[in-house]
User: What shape does this take?
Amino acid sequence: GEELQFLKFELYSSFGIALIYEGKAMSEEALQLYVRSYEIAQKLENSLHQINVLRRIGGIHRNEDRLDSAMNYFRMAMDLAVSLDIPDKTVKLRTYIGVGLIHIDRAEYQESLKYYKQARKLAQDAESNSDLYYTDQAMSYIYQQMHGERPNPIYLDSAIYYCESMLKYEQEIVQQPYLISQTYQTIAYLEETKGNYKEALKTWPKILQWRDSALTANSIRDIRELNEKYETEKKEQQIALQQEKLEKESAVRNGLIAGSLLLIVIAGLVINRQKLNIRNKAKEKELTELKLEKTKDELTLREQELLTYAITISQKNNLLHNVKEVAKKSDDLSDANSRLKKINVEIENGYSLSEQWEEFRQRFEKIHVQFFDKLAELATDLTNTDRRICAYLKLGLSSKQIANLQNVSVESVEVRRSQIRKKLQLSKEDNLSSFIMGIK
Assistant: This one.
């Protein structure tokens, strides 16, 4: 009985600490504890825990671009779940998703689609909206890639269907305006690819509407964070000044006590101490003024950035008004195509209002000189989004952190990383993050 309790304690302790290590990107330490947890689960005949551990190990191998090893662990988890007929549908669901992801990494889209269809059915049975959203997003991407390899209107229809399914979950669950605008933009692109210019034309006002909502939400969040930062620094300055005052009073008090004992000797020490205090006070005052000035400069800079956001929103609202005027109902297909091209021109002009990427690139290259030039020598077909993600990897950011910065899902970042690997012609054994960090 005591041995059994000890094994259970060690099982959950090892698994919990491994999760912490994995969250801190300490992969090797996490793997060691996961393996230990798996061995204990086997002794306890805890099949559900074995499956979960195998999935975690497979996930680490996938993040390290060891796709063959990752596939082996996910298949072990899947075989165990199927053979034991685990009643918890989410266990099989997540395992199917893991196998499907690795097939996407390998550009094996037909195989990936097979597992995602099974995962989607399990998500429907479990009434898990978050898993349905995730599988719909992946299946839309898969059909788009299949159409790119072998054009087929059925693939486009399927991609549009899953995008429209995603919108319901994005609006009810995710509630991120920028992601919603991206989904509408994907639908517009797919409709235009099919030649349905009228449908594509109808989608553009929604794209602009949700994109403006995203800009407004970001501006409000920036203002709140700026105010909190300013108030915190202000309080820190007040505490520092109060502490300086107390230290000075303490020094004077100690000087008076000592002066009563050895007046002549201490008199010289007091004078020297006063001189030192004056110099320290002058330095501290200068440092305090520099910190306050820095805070004010940062506040002014952020206010200017927010003003730019406001101007951008205003200009895009005007653009939205123009789009609504242009997007009047027309039965003439050529006329609809002409209107769509006009909207595209206006949208492109709107894009030119933002120079965040250029500003980021200039600042980044001050630290990592000629990084993008060397990257271009390795792969000439990298897009701006590819280069941006490479820069984030150079800074040591994880896929989850990049997803937060880009305001996209972790799945989108993982897919983009897979595409970058292909463009850089990396082998399965090469680690993308390590490769990027090695570019000097």
